[in-house]
Amino acid sequence: MKYPLTIAAIALAALMPPAEAAALRDSGDPLASARWSEMQKAFLAGAPVLFDPRIKVIAPSTAENPMQVPVTVDATALPGVVEVVVFADFNPIVQVLRFFPESAPAFLGFRVKLQQSTPVRAAARTADGVWHVGGTWVNTVGGGCTAPSAAGGSKEWQQRLNEVSGRQWSEGPNAGRVRLRIVHPMDTGLVAGTPAFFLEEINFADAAGQRLMRVQTYEPVSENPVFTLNRGVADGALEASGRDNNGNAFKTRIAQ
Description:
Elements: H1 7-15, H2 18-25, H3 36-44, E1 49-51, E2 56-58, E3 62-63, E4 69-74, E5 81-88, E6 95-101, E7 107-112, E8 118-126, E9 131-140, H4 157-160, E10 164-168, E11 177-182, E12 199-206, E13 211-217, E14 226-230, E15 238-244, E16 249-254
Parallel strand pairs: 1-9, 3-9
Antiparallel strand pairs: 2-4, 4-7, 5-6, 5-8, 6-13, 8-9, 10-11, 11-14, 12-13, 12-15, 15-16
């Protein structure tokens, strides 16, 4: 299905380099996925869609470990982003996560489990209701979603569940960057005898309580997830809190 460009998008295309303008106008899937129409209906149905080169999905072209595939979504070149959804076309559980950049830039790094080679996409919704889509193909040997977590073989994982470590950088080239690691098995429920057990929501806020970003996570996020975001101008401590689908909660404070 083709959607007409909005007036704002037409004006933007006129200011962009020819190659990027062509990508913005193109309503066909640049990744040539057989499941794109299903993805569009599932996540973007009823709204205008633009394949937009400003939505960067950075991942290895070949991932040697399908259980820990590093992905970075950078939508900071697109103004007015209110929501970003990340999904992998050929995963058995397609939706990876959603994040809502409230006071922070639209940037998030994380790791994902992939069952097979697939496009990994990010769709960023702006306030006018338009979804701007970017993505990349990741080739992998597969099996990441149906392999048991390493925590499943450990007797100590329950004692360390939701143990949090974090760091933020206040100076240098990484100033404003925040990294958070949470001990959690992130079980997909696709391993026999192991129910789905995963983090559902993570909130980042500054010391005054103003929320920087809300992240909704799903089963394909990798075990012991690590999240990287940019808070912009670093100013004081950062608080992170969240919960999993069994109601286990965590809360931590990351000093500057």
